[in-house]
Write a structure and sequence with these properties.
The protein is of the alpha/beta class. Helix content is 64%, strand content 11%. It folds into 2 domains: 319 residues, Up-down Bundle (ABC transporter transmembrane region fold); 237 residues, 3-Layer(aba) Sandwich (Rossmann fold).
């Protein structure tokens, strides 16, 4: 990450910390109190030592006063540090919570065009692992950076007060520590950035492999999967070792410089004490200050290294957050007074990749209540057409009208609430059977849920589950077959009964006997509702009012089943290919 980009990321972090300024001020004041108490202890210890006047001559009363002061300062320093850490923890995890919320909310409004091209594992890594790493760096910055800087400034003031000559020795040698720490920090940032990116690749591969483990094993792909994992794991090991090795040089390098400072203070102070320039107690205090002065440089160098890693991870999260969202809703939204289901498509064109047009010159007029079947070879644009109707994508050209209103001028949420959709790919959330069925109608009664499940022929197998409708399931739940999951998705739509239906190979995972029953249920459900049916099995669409035959993104034929067979065209060819003996 370039220095300019790094500064930009830091600015974005500070903007998100700014709302917590009362806590920051309290943390700074407590840090100041902690440092003041910590730095006052060496003064009291030095004064206590000076109470030893000579052999057998010790002022115990005065020494006791100083020692009680040491105890009081230690208690105040410990209490202030504890409260400061509590405040810093709250600020850090509230900031990271807000960033995670912001990232997850932004994912909800990102264009599907972007999400289709993005690795799911990498997105998960950004929202989870990268934010965690950022939190660790930010927490270390709060807890150690403030106190470190104040300790350095405080010890300098106390040392100058005791002896400016010895303080000058410290000030002259110290910049070496800063130069070393800065050089190492700049070298390690790019390594931590590479580590973060590689970790995202690894998460993506793990997510992909585990999610498709049946296919991996079915095709004997375990070896290739392991090789791919080993390659990424090797790269992660390499860049992690480099990052950690170079960052770990910071501590010993700065400790070496700090030892030089301590030796310089000890030698100069001893000579001055011999000549009577300072007392033995003052020299003891000075040595304590020299040790406390150099210690924060070790901590700050470690903080800088962690911050490099944190900023690299934060940069990936902000990159996600700043991806352009889908096209905004129009200022003046329009919606039909009552959705009847009349659909008109004029000169529609669309492509996923600009240089590869998919749908072009697409025109269609559908009256309310019609059943429209869409057929054609794989990749001809059937599912894409449904995605355009649902506004999962916006067309590149032309317009789609619902009851005379352009869908671009409608609120996406309202449009989708008018449509019931059953896809070939099922999706169930982690939750109970009831929660999955009531996704589109959370306030549905138990009677309504059971009636919808019976219509979808799902009630029987649901009752056989351990807890019936209260059985907890998930997308990858092994206790349900693919067909049973599809029946739950169908029940979900039957519960809502919206004015329009989109069925994309809705019965593809269901056995023939159940399919016949479901088709009857669909017939009842589609009565009076505009329905679009994407089908590969042409036997399921004979009763459609209109069949659209698509080829290479265009409607090449349209008509009823009998009309299309009589034409002896492309539809007839498709039909014969399925029923040839």
């Amino acid at each position: 990450m370039a220095k300019k980009d790094q500064t930009g990321v830091l600015r974005k972090v500070l903007l998100r910390v700014r709302p917590h300024w009362p806590g920051l001020i309290a943390s700074l004041l407590l840090a100041l109190l902690h440092v003041a108490m910590t730095l006052y202890i060496p003064i009291l210890v030095g004064n206590a030592i000076d109470c030893i006047l000579d052999a057998g001559r010790v002022d115990f009363d005065t020494m006791a006063v100083y020692l009680r002061g040491v105890l009081l300062c230690a208690v105040i320093a410990a209490a202030s540090q504890w409260v400061m850490n509590e405040i810093n923890n709250r600020i850090t995890y509230r900031v990271t919570r807000d960033i995670r919320d912001e990232a997850f909310c932004h994912i909800q409004v990102l264009p599907l065009r972007y999400l289709d091209r993005q690795s799911q594992g990498d997105l998960v890594s950004r929202v989870i692992a990268d934010v965690d790493t950022f939190a660790d760096g930010l927490l270390m910055g709060f807890t150690q950076l403030f106190t470190g800087v104040m300790t350095i400034l405080g010890t300098l003031l106390f040392m100058v007060r005791i002896s400016w000559q010895i303080a000058l020795v410290v000030i002259l040698i110290t910049p070496l520590s800063l130069v070393v720490a800065n050089f190492i920090a700049r070298s390690t940032h790019s390594m931590f950035q590479e580590q973060s990116v590689t970790r995202g690749e690894q998460t993506a591969l793990i997510d992909e492999t585990i999610g498709q483990m049946k296919l991996v094993r079915a095709f004997g792909h375990e070896g290739e999967a392991l090789e791919a994992f080993d390659e990424i794991n090797g790269r992660l090991q390499s860049c992690s070792l480099k990052a950690i090795f170079f960052s770990s040089l910071t501590n010993p390098a700065t400790r070496f410089v700090n030892s030089l400072v301590y030796a310089g203070v000890g030698l100069t102070g001893a000579l001055m004490a011999i000549s009577g320039g300072i007392t033995v107690g003052n020299l003891t205090s000075f040595l304590n200050y020299a040790n406390q002065y150099t210690k924060p440089f070790n901590e700050i160098s470690g903080v800088i290294t962690e911050l490099q890693n944190a900023l690299a991870c934060a940069g990936r999260v902000f990159e996600l957050i700043e991806k352009p969202a889908r096209s905004p809703e129009p200022e003046r939204l329009q919606m039909p007074e009552k959705v009847e289901g009349a659909v008109e498509i004029r000169d529609l064109s669309f492509s996923y990749v600009p240089e590869k047009p998919l749908i072009g010159d697409f025109n269609l007029s559908v009256k309310p209540g019609m059943r429209i079947a869409i057929v054609g070879p794989t990749g001809c644009g059937k599912t894409t057409f449904i995605n355009l109707l649902m506004r999962f994508y916006d067309p590149d050209g032309g317009e789609i009208l619902l009851d005379g209103v352009n869908t671009r001028n409608m609120d996406r949420g309202q449009l989708r609430r008018c449509v019931g959709m059953v896809l070939q790919d099922t999706w169930l959330k982690a939750g109970t059977i009831r929660e999955n069925i009531t996704m589109g109608k959370p306030d549905a009664t138990d009677e309504e849920v059971i009636a919808a499940a019976k219509q979808a022929h799902a009630h029987g197998f649901i009752k056989r589950l351990p807890n019936g409708y209260d059985t907890v399931i998930g997308e990858s739940d092994g206790q349900l077959s693919q067909g049973q999951k599809q029946l739950l998705c169908i029940a979900r739509v039957m519960l809502c009964l919206p004015p329009m239906l989109f069925l994309d190979e809705a019965t593809s995972s269901i056995d023939t006997r159940t399919e016949i029953r479901i088709q009857k249920a669909f017939d009842t459900m589609m009565r009076g509702r505009t329905s679009f049916i994407v089908a590969h099995r042409l036997s399921t669409i004979r009763e459609a009012d209109l069949i659209l035959v698509m080829r290479e993104g265009r409607i090449v034929e349209q008509g009823t089943h009998e009309e299309l067979l009589a034409r002896n065209g492309f539809y007839s060819e498709l039909y014969r290919s399925q029923f040839a003996h």
